[in-house]
Amino acid sequence: YWIRDLSYCPRKRDVTRQRQCFKSCFDDSDCRSRYRSCVCDYDCGMSCVKRGISCPFLAPPDHGRIVYSNENKFGSRATYECEAGFVLEGPKHRHCQGDMWWGPSDSVPYCTKEGMK
To answer: Is the Cβ–Cβ distance between 47 and 38 less than 8 Å?
Structure first.
């Protein structure tokens, strides 16, 4: 998402093992390309991200749905919801990241019948 405060958007040390992070930056001039902007890329911190990118739409969980804050565009939040009588397992939200994938990617949310855990 479009934040330019490094203290608010630090790069996590071990994140590069889990996903592709782009060049770190402080402002757009660090990116050296008119096609990239210096933006907060979640766990990757402030990074040079290609403008206009999007992530593939996610498959909704069985007995649930996904509500997108800005379709599948970079920075969009996907919120998982379950039908009545079902409970969400895993993260409620995922975000479209600069590597064009939804994070966190280590756990995909799903719906289980209430009382079946």
So the answer is: yes
Report which DSSP code applies to 12: P
Burial 21-39 (b: 16+ CB within 10 A, else e): bbeebeeeeebeeeebbbb
Of residues 83 and 13, more confidently modeled: 83
> What is the total count of domains within the chain?
2
Q: What is the pLDDT of residues 52-76, one digit of tens each?
A: 999 999 999 999 999 999 999 999 9
pTM (2 d.p.): 0.81
List the domain range (segments joined by +) for residue 106. 64-113
Q: Say if residues 105 and 20 touch (Cβ distance below 8 Å).
A: no
